[in-house]
Structures are given as structure tokens and as C-alpha cells.
């Protein structure tokens, strides 16, 4: 009888211990590991604008037309430049693509000297471009690839104004470039015509 009682007590103790055992902790679901968002490299070139009177060396990257280029300076910044004192045919005009091609052949990927004469309303540098010691603006006129833009040449040095005028007259006499056409339309007249057409289409 004593042994039975002893075993009963021992069994009760074991049952109590089992009842007090902490339940197994439920395993937590594994959250998916989020990968850090990679930083997108835009590789956008920095843009810069020099000030009036500034001079610097650059490499020509792009020729937009016969009087507008994009260059990269020694610091890697890009500048959009309008060639000073000249006006080339727009690319949709007669000889516009030819003027662009002539400038591209001369300047693309070439080192140039930039002399900033002004900043225009489009925030472009208006500049004289020199390549291999030659005034590229003047050459565009002399080869019949552009007009002397007298309306915007009032600030031009008098001697240079006369030189540019003489170059245009010589190109006209030789019927070079755009002067091979009987009555070439000046680009400023073409732009005005396009603006008026746009206004008419807009119902103004």
C-alpha cells in the first residue's frame, strides 16, 4: 500500500511538471529581405554658361546648324553657343543642311577657342569661335554659308564689321554657297514667316 501511494505521488509530480513546461515557441514567418534600391546613374553632363568677355578652350561636341554648336570645356561642362555676328540658313531652308555640314566638317570633335561676346535671350553664349588661328564665324560668311547678321552686329568692332561685310559681298559676287540661289531668303525673314504662320494656325 505504501509503495502504491509513493508511485501515485511521483506520477502526480511528473504530470504537474509536464503541465508547467512552456509551449514550443511558434516559428515566426521569415520576412522577405528587401534589397536596397540601386542608385540610378543618370550620367547627365553638367551644363555651364560663361560670362560676357570670358575666353576658354573647349572641344566641339555637336553642330546644331550653321551657326549653333555645343562644346565641352576643360572641366567637362557643356556650353551651347551661338556664333556671333552671323546668321546661317535654318536647316529647313535652302542650303541649311549644307551650311550645317560645312561647319560640322570643320569643327566636330575639334579643339576651339571661345570668346564670349554676349549672352542671348535663350541663355546661350554668343561667341567668336577660333580654330587653328582662324575666325570660324568669318569663314562661314566668306564661304557663303551664312549672312553677316548686321542687325545684331552693332556692338561689333568697326574693323571686324567691315571685314565681315566685305566677305559677304565677295561670296555674293562669286555665288558661293547660299548665294548660288537667285534670291535666297534671309533666315530672320524665314523665322518671322514661320512665327506668323504659327499664329494663324493657332487662330490668333
Automatic annotation (TrEMBL):
Domain TNase-like: 54-181
Gene3D superfamilies: 2.40.50.90
Signal peptide (from-to): 1-21
Keyword Nucleus: no
Biased composition, class Low complexity, residue ranges: 29-45
The keyword Signal is annotated on this UniProt entry: yes
Coiled-coil intervals, chain numbering: none
Region (Disordered) residue spans: 26-53
Entry GO MF terms: nuclease activity; nucleic acid binding
Highest taxon listed in the record's lineage: Bacteria
Record keywords: Signal
Classification via PANTHER family: BLR1266 PROTEIN, EBNA2 BINDING PROTEIN P100
Name of the molecule in the record: Staphylococcal nuclease homologue
Source organism of this protein record: Alysiella crassa
